[in-house]
């Protein structure tokens, strides 16, 4: 059956309703469609009868679905055995880089944050044997849920039949072009996606630092080495960047900001003015991440512990009142039974009190008393903040780094910045045992409490402590656990160690992904 005979309203696999044509590419048509089984929008590719690369596109789509990075557009279904072959992908709601640049170039640190996220996704694809080869401003999306998405990985190259000798160099240059566009509002290869071509000199497009003031020297150098490799070593120091992995390594040391969401995310409040989340911010003196006062007066802002059980208690209160009213209408026989029960209860209490008095000198140390709980709280209150000297993300059950470059943002003294996990398409507990943020104290300390300022609610986590720099959560001892949102976690008993691991086993849903963030963390204890 020909794609051109398919009209809006047609249904594939008895579930995907084709709503409207989005684009056509030489015999392949992209539709905005509806998955009627799950009641969600999807993107669907269909192909004309005789389209020569249908099988290649379906194979590429299936391979793309196995890339372990949530920034890669998810593939839901692909089938080339039906009368109308198709590929079903995630429909990303948000703004493309071209949309974001319609108002002009981005701030350098924000441009770096957006493209660095895309580079990590492309590098993950290359590690899985897939490439993009067609990177343009329309392929880089900033979703309304606050996540970076790269569309077309694997599928675009198969659609066009692209076959190049060095795909790593092609995608590295594509990433450089995206960064060039974000910094300058121009595309170095000529007009593209509504952007004008870059101004030309005798050696080709000018480096971005010559087009726009305010582009930092590191960003100018990285962009030129990737997008304009023939100028590397001439107009900027260093060799050409020829792989996405090399591009990621170069960007790891560059201060960068995550772009602002296209629309507010209901599950988390917007950043305070001037305190949008930063990623990879390093001290230019080389002495480590910058630390600053907690707020304007140098004191730490109060954190609130949220209880998920409070609403349930309020809902159940009327039923308990009804029960008390019913008990007030008891019969004389029930009253007599009640009197006997009271007498027996009093006898039990007296006996227990006597037995307790006899055993008091030798109480079971395994059962914490109210006094011991109070002692732990008092010790935690008297403990001081311990210095954190380094940190990293911990992802022992995955192939990608858990944003270690951003981890210092969780203890930089600024609640408007944050370390965040990767975004996951499915709940964390069905993907892996967990992910974590490891904090290094430099020396072993007696740890009494951990204060967590988290982004939103819906977390489940453990506090783990150890003296070895382990790469698995099993290398650390569980000393406390918690759930909900921001809170002070007081250890029942102090724990000794120089490494503290905040280990997340459940993450909240943020837009279309499951993602967690730590705005600020403080470890309190004694030397």
Automatic annotation (TrEMBL):
Chain residue ranges for the region called Disordered: 190-214, 260-330, 361-380, 389-418
Chain ranges passing through the membrane: 335-355
Extent of Basic and acidic residues compositional bias: 312-325
GO molecular function: kinase activity
Nucleotide-binding found in the keyword field: no
Record's keyword terms, sorted: Kinase, Membrane, Transferase, Transmembrane, Transmembrane helix
Database matches in InterPro entries: Galactose-bd-like_sf, Kinase-like_dom_sf
Coiled-coil region list: none
Residue stretches of biased makeup (Polar residues): 294-306
Domain of life: Bacteria
This protein's name: Protein kinase family protein
Source organism of this protein record: Nocardiopsis codii
